[in-house]
Structure formats: structure tokens, C-alpha cells
Task: structure prediction
Amino acid sequence: MAYTHHNNELNLAHLGQTVRLKGWVARKRNLGGLIFIDLRDRFGITQLLVQPGHPSYELASTLKSEYVIAITGVVIERESKNPNMATGDIEVNIEELVVLNTAETPPIGISNEDTALEDTRLKYRYLDLRRPVMQNFMIKRAQITQAVREALLLEGFNEFETPILGKSTPEGARDFLVPSRLYAGEFYALPQSPQIYKQLYMVAGFEKYFQIARCFRDEDLRADRQLEFTQVDIETSFLTELEIQSMIERVLAHTFKKVLNVEIKLPIERMPFDRAMSLYGSDKPDLRFGLLLKDLNPLFDHYAIPFLANKSIRGFVVPNGAHLSRKELDAFTTTVKKNHGDALAFLKVSNHELSGSLLKNITDPKQFIESAGLVENDLLLVIAGKDFESASKAAGALRKELGDYLKLASDDDYRFVWIVDWPLFDVNEDGSLTAAHHPFTSPKEADKPLLFSNPQACRAQAYDIVLNGYELGGGSVRIHESHIQQQMFEAIGLSKEIIEERFGFLVGALKYGTPPHGGLALGLDRLVMLMTNTKNIKDVIAFPKTQSARDLMMQAPSSVADAQLEELNLIIKK
Amino acid sequence: MAYTHHNNELNLAHLGQTVRLKGWVARKRNLGGLIFIDLRDRFGITQLLVQPGHPSYELASTLKSEYVIAITGVVIERESKNPNMATGDIEVNIEELVVLNTAETPPIGISNEDTALEDTRLKYRYLDLRRPVMQNFMIKRAQITQAVREALLLEGFNEFETPILGKSTPEGARDFLVPSRLYAGEFYALPQSPQIYKQLYMVAGFEKYFQIARCFRDEDLRADRQLEFTQVDIETSFLTELEIQSMIERVLAHTFKKVLNVEIKLPIERMPFDRAMSLYGSDKPDLRFGLLLKDLNPLFDHYAIPFLANKSIRGFVVPNGAHLSRKELDAFTTTVKKNHGDALAFLKVSNHELSGSLLKNITDPKQFIESAGLVENDLLLVIAGKDFESASKAAGALRKELGDYLKLASDDDYRFVWIVDWPLFDVNEDGSLTAAHHPFTSPKEADKPLLFSNPQACRAQAYDIVLNGYELGGGSVRIHESHIQQQMFEAIGLSKEIIEERFGFLVGALKYGTPPHGGLALGLDRLVMLMTNTKNIKDVIAFPKTQSARDLMMQAPSSVADAQLEELNLIIKK
Result:
């Protein structure tokens, strides 16, 4: 007999109906001879009841937490209703009880309040995932993925696959390698992204490609990084930078509306990279709060303050920040130092008097308050760095941290911004160039001649979509002309031989009628994190690796049989 | 300015409209001074026209095949219409022409008739994929995938992800290994299927899982195999074998209706494995034609035919098959021998006379015709093998080949069948057992005690879905009881230590309240092959490997830098 309801569905409208339910015993109590069972499935909980003397009473007495059972019973009204439960008005009087499986006492509690250590949770992930909060993360992930897909299908995209076993092209991050058994000493590589394949789909004329794509980077893990991650990978032909951005905006708006019922106001603001660095000290500014950065050199340059001499000085005013103590502020020095800043100082206005770490250097406090435009209870934070970029980044990091500390931003406020007009190249210390985005990114149309004459002045047709201080995705219009692609590779120092060996097929492909094209990749894990308001990326991945790159449940990686290595022609170095 | 139409859209209803189109130059002709251009995109072709003297005329003269262009023009009626083209009633008179990219002469022709060698097609896959027939394969693949997904979402499933970097458990096929950089001498493995992860989703209570999952097997390639392939991976809790099958039937019916507008009659026939072997000599019978196998020992046993002595004799009647010549029939001997058969003989009835290779052994031809139930023009094929299974398989292979040879089956006829009631184990020559499906398959409920007493008599709760002689997918109800899983591993000869090392977490997981569960995996590549009527699996994969496991376009696998191997602590054996 099929199950009639999930455990969140029954209410007074079902009184008297015979129903069949299944699920896990979340709790069992014996009250005055009656046995009450909370039956859980991923949808909710229904209270069951067994009367003393009923044929199932004895079996019901043996039930323990996490037993899997199926029951038939009749819906009755509860005496003491629970308004906090969807099914809180009713209970089900058991007529038939079947135990589908027993359970030993689980090593972690199946409740949101459980406080097991992360390693224990990961070892018993299949139990950790039973906790309602984790179920919600996974279901939301599936819904978000599907909403994104739905939006892209509505935009006329097709979902296409690309290979996982590809070629190693050691640009950017480190590749995972897969030894070939048939070709001794040769390797496939797992893709860091389907970048080249999606461009080849454009070369082939498919015009609108997307894929929910698994990507791999053999990098040392940080808190929000995994060895493998998922991106919404998008590529399209014949569209301009702005048209691509508009399309992505519609996809994001559809997704937020569908999953969170949140309206995103379109169009999303577009901010040049230079402006973001200048006002926010970050290429992923959090726009939910102010604290805009200022250039403080004009203010401080006529005071002879030794530790600010020859520095770039940036900073920002925290309105009503004067209550922050010296101790609290000193703690932020670490943030400044960690982010390339040299020093942090402060001044505040309380009772119309200036105070703070720089006071002894300020000869004319009243005049200073006026020049700085400070008002009562203002806190002015002053960050010094060796150059504009360093000071800005340090000030930007401090701004972000202070925003969190003062709770200036709400989790329910979704502030998107496009960062545009990026440089095409980063300049290394030795003056050599690397691609700021990746070497397939097109210069701005007007800057194409500069690629040959003064490459580092080139601006890119690149754009990042930023949400609440996180980079949600990045993209660009790609190079579609073979000679530009060749020059781009040369500009980043690749020899003609290396270009031919690694990217010969791509430079070749661009010669046979490649349309203008571009796209973007959204980090799905991060998108889900932001939409579910969790800070731990492992919460939104069903079976994550630890920060030390291990699967604690399956015990991977692991040693393998000698015969396997033999077949692969490999020896492990002792 | 945005593009207004695809190249399959314009017709007489658009006369006089100014349109903007883009695409590839498929053909250019100069007729009496007028330049005609066939403009192609993935949707179709529109004919363009440039008048002599027009400012764009000179530029139009320089166009070559596969140039990418954008045009603005006015829709006009054609003088000589082409009823075979969606846009054959009109042409577009060019007002503005922009060349978006040029093209060298492509190494393969961009037409369905191109006869380039497969290796050339694979090397220039981005051009091969421009051919309309290949575009159709890829678009159909995307549509089929999406239709399957849509059906599963309607059934209440969620699409969940599973890791690609997992653990090597050398059951069944060979694993691809991925060396770990952080743990010298240890490896991740790519999944042969997400089998265990999807079961863990059930343990975790998610109830309905699916994934369009990439799977990997390091096996020697056959014509219809690739190193990586895609399966529609499905798992569900609390359903019986029959309920799972019904759900899959609805998914298939939805997909065939949506993509091909073909109605599949439900329920799909269910045929026990034994019956399939007996009537069709195959566990994946093609039901589009008859030629049912018979047991011929009763017929031949009283003739003393030396080469049939002590053999199992099977065969089938081909109505109106008497016209097949001895030469044609002799050619089929190879098929019989290749499929474990020992001999092929035949008898036919023409002009009411028996003839054929066995005639000299038949002492009473008239009586034989009657006993065998033959009628005029019948051909009786006689296959001998060392036992029932060998003779049946050989006869089944011959049946299939003859069906193809005589064109008894239509490509548009979709005949599904479930093969059910499989044995749980295969018996090896040495008497040891291996799991016929995989070691997570549950015995039939009634056979569970046999697992401990007489395992090889166990039948499995396993089922294959077969379409037109191809296995489209296979599945089973899984073992959800820990002690049954432990016994199953022991029955296939795994020691307690190996069980603990490889599957300890699974045997453990089943102890904490695992629901009954089961599922199925559909081979997506094969499904697309069958639905697009191609015989070459590479046709439905955008970037396939060759049969010798190489990517000819990117040149993978390839050697890697010494530094990469150094980091992985590996040495290549010389």
C-alpha cells in the first residue's frame, strides 16, 4: 500500500481519515500508559499515538530513536494542540505498525541543536544530513540550482556537457592529474573550469550554452574553498558586455524571486573597478552600508606626523563611532597589517572635543574638526600604507570588518553590484604581465591596438558580479580574433612553442569563423551560501572534504593496490 | 542593436520589415551581378541579397564560406520560392553589412554530406559540430536530458550532487586514480557511479534523489563505450520494485512524448530473466520482431546426427526465410561461434520439399516437416552448444543479426521491456560467486534466508529496462539491513578486514535507521543514441575520446612538467 501523506501535511481537514505514513522515530514518550511517537520525514513531524491494549502496543514499546517505521492509522484531534507545528492540531491513532529497520543509538544527535564537533559530523555525514537545518540547506541548493536552470532555459540557453578528462594547461591554479593507463607517462587533467570547451561550443555555433559544471583546483584549502566546486557556467555569442550583464541580472532576479521571494531591483548598479577601489578599498564592495573611503593626504599633509610621512593616507568616518574604545580599535590594527597597511590611527569627536591616538600631533583641534568635516560622535579612522593601493586595500578590509562588528548590514538585504572596467593585466614585481582575469579575456574594443604597443594600459571587457561583499561570479567578452589571442599569449610571456603546444587548437579554431562571444561563471556553492545565510561552505555541500582535503566518511584519499600503480606505470617516491 | 530573428523565422508575414540577422556565410553566389548569400545559424538558413551598386556590394564580394557577419535589411518576396526551406518564400535585401570575423577555408566541409575521416572530424570537432546533423544531435541531447529532469521533478525528486573525488574501491571495472598532493602515495578515485553516495542520501532521509551524473571507467574502449559517460542516476526510499519501475516508466513516457511525440504504452511488459533467455537467448531482447527460440532437442534427439550428439540444440523458424542462400546462411556461422555456439545448421521447405545442410541426416523428411511444424517457405535454423545457456546465447545473437539482416525491425518502433527476476549471483568457473548486478542489490524478500544457506539460489530484486535490444538502464532494490549487507560481501568472498576497510562506513551507516530504498541508472548517451537513431555513440557526445582513449583536438592525455610529478611524489617507470 502506498504512503498517503508526508509528515507535514495532516490537519483538522483530515479528521477521521485512514492514512499511511512512514518515517523515522524522532522521539517516543510514554504518558499515562499512552505511547506518543514523533514521526519525522524530510517534510516535517506528525505525532502518533498507540493506545494501551492495542495489538501494536508491545511493538511500539520497543521503538527507539531513528527506527524506521510505517504505520496505518486514523487522524484524530489533539487534546493539547501545538500551534508551532504544521500538524499540531492532530495526531494519528495507530492501527497497524511495521518496523522497516532498527537503529543503534546514533553518534550525533539528529537535531539542529546538536553540538557535535565538525569532524564527527563529517565522519557520520549521512546522520548529520538528517538534521532539519542540513536538510534545508540541501533542498535549498537543489531549488536554487533548478531556478537558475529554469531562468537560463527561458532565455533560450541549452545545457551542454563538457569532458572531465581533459588536458593539463598549467595556467593559474594547480591541476589535478589523472594518469593514463594506455599511454605510460601521460596524464589527463581535471578541468579548473570548462572555459575552453564552452568557447568551442561558441565556435561550433551553438550560441547559448550553460552547464552546472564541476570544477577542480588542487590548491591549499581555505575556509570557503573545496578541492571540487560547482559553477553555473554560461557562454553566449553575438552579445555585448552590457547585454550579457542584463541577461545574468534577469537570471539572478528570477532565482531570488523564485527561491526567496526577494525582488532584486534591475538594472544592477555598475561600478568601475577604479571607483570600487577608491570608495570601498575592495573589488568586491559591500554596499549595504556606507563608511566610504576618503583620501586623507590633503588633510594630514600639513601636519608633520612622522609615521604618516611619505605614506598614502586613506580612511573613513564612522558616524556615532566615538563610543568605540581604544582597546576595541587597537584590535583592528591586525586587520590593517594583514591587508598590506602600515598603520592605523584614529580621532574622535565627543563633547565637541577632539581626542584619539593622533591628538598630540594635531596643533589646531577645532580647525581640524572643521577641515575634516567631523560632527559630534564621529570617529575618523586613519590608515597609512606605502602606496594608494595598499592603503586602500587595508582601509577596505577595515571598513568591511567594522561593518560586521557594528552590525551595519542585514543578512536579508541583498545588494548587488557589477564591477566593470577592469585592467586586462596585473603587473608583477619584475614588471612582467599576467592576465588579470584569464588570457581569453578581450581588451576593450578601443584598447585592442594598445595590446601591441602598451599592453599594461589595456582595459578588459571583464565584469564581476558582487553580492554583499562576496564575488558571486566573474566573466568577460572573450577574444574571438586569432591574432589578438596570439598576441595576448605573447604579452603574458608565453613562447610561440608553448602557445602552439598548449593552445594551438584554440588559436587555430579562431581562424575558422568564430563569432564574438562572452559569458560568465557563477559560483554555485557561494550563491547557495549567501541565499541560505550560512558562513560555512561545507554546510551547502552534501559530502565535502575537510580543510585538510580528506573525506572523513569514506576515508579518501587512500593508498591503492600495487597492481593499480603497476598498470599506471607509476612508482611512489619514498 | 539587438538581433531580431533567427535564420529559420522569416516568411511572407514579415514582408517589408527591417530585420537584423547574424550568422555564418554558408554559401555565396553571384547571379547576374546580384550577390546571394545563404546565412546560417543553428536554427536555419536565410537567403540574403546585395544589389549591384549598393555601398555594401564591394564588402559582400569579399565574403567567403564561414565568415561571420551581421546584417540589417528588408524582407522581400522571392521570385523563385524554395518550398523545402522554412524561409524559402522570402529573402532579405541587405542595407548594412558588418563582417564580425573572417574564416580560412575549413579543413572539413560544414554540411551533412561531408565525408571527412572520423579522426579529422574529431581533430576539428568545433567545425564538425557546425554540421546541421551534429547540431541536431547535441540539441536533442539537451532536450532529452531536460525532459527526463522535468519528469523527475514532477515526480517530486530533487537533483543532488555527489563528489567526483572519491575513494578507490576496486570492484567491477577499473578506477581512474587521482594522486593526492597533500598525502604522498595516496589517491582519490573518480566514481564508476554515484551508487554509494546516492544510497547515503537515502540513509540521510532525502527520499527522492536524482542526478545527471558523470561516471568513469578505465576500461578498454569498445565502439559504444567512452572513458567517461553520463547516467541519469535515480534513488528513492520506501518504494517496492514494482513502484520504482512504474515511476521510471512515467519518466520515459514523458521524455519520448515530449521530445519525439511518441506515445509509449504503459505499463511496460515485464519479462523474467529466464524467459528472456529461453525465448530470445538474450537478457536484452529486441521485441520488435518474432523469431522466438525453441528447444530442438526433442525434435532431433531420435536422429543420430553426430555433430549434434550430447549438445543442447536450440533454434528458430524464419517464416518466408527459404529464399536465403547457403552462402548467406554460412556467413552467420561466425556469429554463432563468436557467441559460444558450436555449430549452425539449417533446413528449409520449398515446393513442399525439405532441403538444407541437415537433409542427409533426416530419414523421414515429410514426417520431419510435420513434427517441426514447418510450412512452405519456412527456414529452420539449428544451433548447437555445449549447454542450454551457450546454445541459447548463440541462437539469440543469430536471431538479432538475422532481424537486422532481414530488416524486420523499424527504427521508429520503440519496444520497451523490463527484464526482472535476475539471479543475485553469477557463478564463476571455480564455483565462487560474484554479484550479478552489484553487491548492494537486495535478494528477493523470500530469498533472504537463502543468502546464508544456499546463496547461489538467491534471486535478486533487480531489473533492467531494455529498448529495442539495448540495455537502457538497470537498477535494484538495495540492501538496507546491515547484517544482510555484511553477509552479501562475505558471499562474494570478501574478508572481514577488506569489508571493514572498503565498506565499513556503509555497513555502519545501515545500522542507524536506513529506510528500504532502491533505484536505477539510465545510460544517457545510449538513450540519446536510440532516440536520435544513430549507431555511433560519439555522435551524441560533443567532445568524445577516440577508441584509443585520446582527445585528438586538445591532444590529451599528454606529458606533464617534472615539477607537477615532483609535487605529487610520483616517478614514471621507464
